[in-house]
Amino acid sequence: MAGKRGIKTVRDMILSMALISACAGGIYLFIPHDDTADPIKPVDYRVELATARRAAPYPVAAPEGLAQEWKPTSVTYKGAEGSAWHLGFLDPDREYVAVEQSTAPAEKYLEEITHGAADTGRTQQVAGQTWKQWEGPKYDALVRLENGTTTVVTGTAPLERLAEMAAALKTS
Fold this sequence. Notes:
By secondary structure, this protein is α+β, with helices and mostly antiparallel strands. Helix content is 33%, strand content 33%. It has 4 helices and 9 strands. A hairpin with a 4-residue loop joins strand 6 (129-135) and strand 7. It is elongated and about 80 Å long.
């Protein structure tokens, strides 16, 4: 008797799974979904920016006046970790560009956020400021060291795009 009961239970489980699968398939087919939509959702970084500007011991930089094709994708401020500010974007060519600032020791900080880029010894004038050019296997960067704060514009984008972001940075 126990043997028949076990077969019946397995059969009921298989029938239940088939019914659930059919319902899930029907829902997927009949509920509208857009496979062409951009999976990258822009973030609104205004609140985090205001918070960081109040808390950071340095003038926090963020871009103003960038074209709408630039999409902000990530934002963080970590006051306990060298007052680290991060603002990530996708540029119009869908390359990554990030603004990074911190009071952490520059050598270790730069190694980490540029993923091993190195100082080329060249500089670039951007919006009246001198930036050091760094190049690496993964990221390139524009770097400024000022008053104990390291400001970096880094990413997979070419130096022209990094300079475009650097030129748009404002601290007020």
